[in-house]
Amino acid sequence: MRPVRSPFLRGCVASAPFVIVVVPFGLLFGVVATEAGLDLLQVMLFSFSVFAGASQFAAVQLMQDQAPVLVVLATSLAVNLRMVMYSVAMTPHLGAAPFNMRLLMAYFLVDQSFAASQVEFERRPDQPLADKVAFFFGTVTPIAPMWFLATLAGAVVGEAIPPEYALDFAVPITFLAICAPMLRSIPHVVAAAVSIGAALMLTGLPYGTGLLLAAVLAMAAGAGAEVALMRRRGA
Amino acid sequence: MKIDPTTFWIVLPVLGIGTYLIRLSFLGLLGNRPLPPGLRRALSYTAVAILPGLVAPAVLWPAATGGETDPARLAAACVTLVVGLVTRSVIGAILAGGITLYAVLWL
Questions:
Q1: In terms of residue numbers, what domain contains A213?
Q2: Is the four-CA dihedral A106, A112, A118, A124 of positive or negative sign?
Q3: What is the ipTM metric for this complex?
Q4: What does the pLDDT look like over A5-58, one tens digit per residue?
Q5: Shortest Cα distance from B68 to chain A (angstroms)?
Q6: Range of the domain at B27
Q7: In contact, A137 and A144? CB cutoff 8 Å
Q8: How near does any CA of chain B get to the CA of A64, in Å?
Q9: Which of chain A's residues have a Cβ under 8 Å away from the Cβ of B80?
Q10: Largest CB tally within 10 Å, which of A107, A119, A211, B8?
Q11: Which of B2, B14, B19 to mutate to test binding with chain A, by most A CBs within 10 Å of its CB?
Q12: Which of B24, B47, B86, B98 is nearest to A53 (CA)?
């Protein structure tokens, strides 16, 4: 095959495999959000304005559990805090672009565009800014429309699915499936274990604050385990 | 339980704008500067610190069965986790968990 020259097209090619993940995920979000009582407009506005699957699922789950607004917001925003790292990692490569361009790129800075761009920019750091920007926009071109279309399809299907199909469990299964591949090091396993243990022990706390507390403890445990491991290897 | 519309219309704009500002943070506003190592370390554990805790009660005490531990949901959760760990495939794990759930419910 002739190598693709245009950076935009190379971006499209690099993120094309992610479509296989984005479509079922968007479908499932559409279905779950509709079953939770949101109408088509609400579901679509959700995917357009937040554009971050895991936090959308988390918000829907917590709103369904009647958690207070502040707890819903704190938890779902915390799920998205990992994107600060994406923003940091992209800045050396895209930070010199015009401000308006960066405003637009920030909207499209999602897991998939970050992952594909990070690999490309590390492999070829010396390419011109215009090529990097084109590559970045290439990576979101297959992803973004499919995310919105899949959400739409899911919302339409969801209105037709009766509640007795045990869809209550779609969210737990989805979260477990997202988490399992993340458990790639001992500190990640420690963080997950503390998160589960503390969340179960603290379910009695009012307004879902137990989960937030568990998350803070788990984050500290993961970071602490990483430092401890580094020290042991250094010694 | 259905989502309360007032809650939704508050959560939607704040979560949308908040998430956008998180993405914009360094790329648009703070510029090219390194993240303190402690902060980077904490951030890299955010998702794995929240999501397992969010699902654990739903796995052990599902609302759909009135909080009774349910063999079908427990089995589905275990299969999802194991398949996800072994294959590293999110979609593979969701499919395996879904098939297990309906298979055990149907038995």
A1: 183-235
A2: negative
A3: 0.85
A4: 899 999 999 898 888 878 888 988 999 899 899 999 999 999 999 999 889 998
A5: 14
A6: 1-31
A7: no
A8: 5
A9: 173, 176-177, 180
A10: A211
A11: B19
A12: B47
